[in-house]
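Curious: why these numbers?
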Amino acid sequence: MKPISNGADDNQDHTADILDDVVLDHFTATSPAIGPFGETTLSWSVSGPAGFHVQLNEIDVERSGSQVVKPPVTEAYRLSARAGQGRRSLSTLSIHVDTSTCAVVQPSFNDGPGEMLKLLVDQVLAADTSLSIAQRVVLGPFGQQHLEPRQPTISFDLGVMTIELHLKKNHVADAPDPDIDVTIKTGLRLDPETGALETVNATVTGEIDQPWWIDLVPVYGLIVSIKTGEAETRLPMQFAPVIAAIPQLVGFVYAIDASRQRYQTVDIPGGDANPAIRLVACAKPRTFPFPTGTVDIGHQVEIEQATVSQPPRSTGPTRVLEPSGAAGPRRR
């Protein structure tokens, strides 16, 4: 009597046979060790029967090919073969990044996040003079009432910065002055080519306590009338310029010498981590182009085009950078 065949087992056996016949011809890098902002070219060649594909760090690639990589820190690249649900590891290649000229950037102020929040609120209030900090009624120990401001807050969770603004729209015609509560959440990343700070996955949500008639002037001066049902849905557009200003404010508070250094990595550790935003900066390599531009954060910072003839020498292990030009105690 012919044995009953299990289709799943047969497929697994066929997959295993395919992967057993896969041959790695080579997997190399033009340089296994690079400096900050450096690059290397990975190349590989894999042969074998039909029915499998090659993956580099779990991303499909050609059986033979090359790829330029620019890891910010030491990173492992894994080449594997996959057939059906089966996978076979072929080789792992580590690219070492020398971070001896890199350091964690400390804020230029004793309370970096607090200073950043203050600058952001100042910009919002300056851009629309009909906005002010909202107040709330507080009951005293003997029943007396008084008003106190609802202060803005900034907090950090893993990968996310949260800013909460409590504003009042003053002098709204034919209606009580509305309160506007805005919550901004965003992550941070670096442009891999320029090292510029960027927001990522930014969201704006909010509530308005008088939504039936609000003439809300958006930040930075565009006039939009918002009536029933529209006010809260328009808040993300109104506060988009605030999100756009966040990278500039972070760069101002966590300042580096742009003529010699560039940000290498950024992350938000969350919790009580200090610094709350962890930026690492490294010395620019020789002939590295420097950015040119003007940053508008209440005053202008001019950065001229230049190159470095020699990166600063490392004096030991990773160290803390003081802000550019700091010659005394930090500003309060």
About this structure: The chain has a mean pLDDT of 78. Residues 65 and 216 are 56 Å apart (CA to CA). Helices lie at 7-20, 112-127, 231-238, 240-253. The chain has four helices and 22 strands.
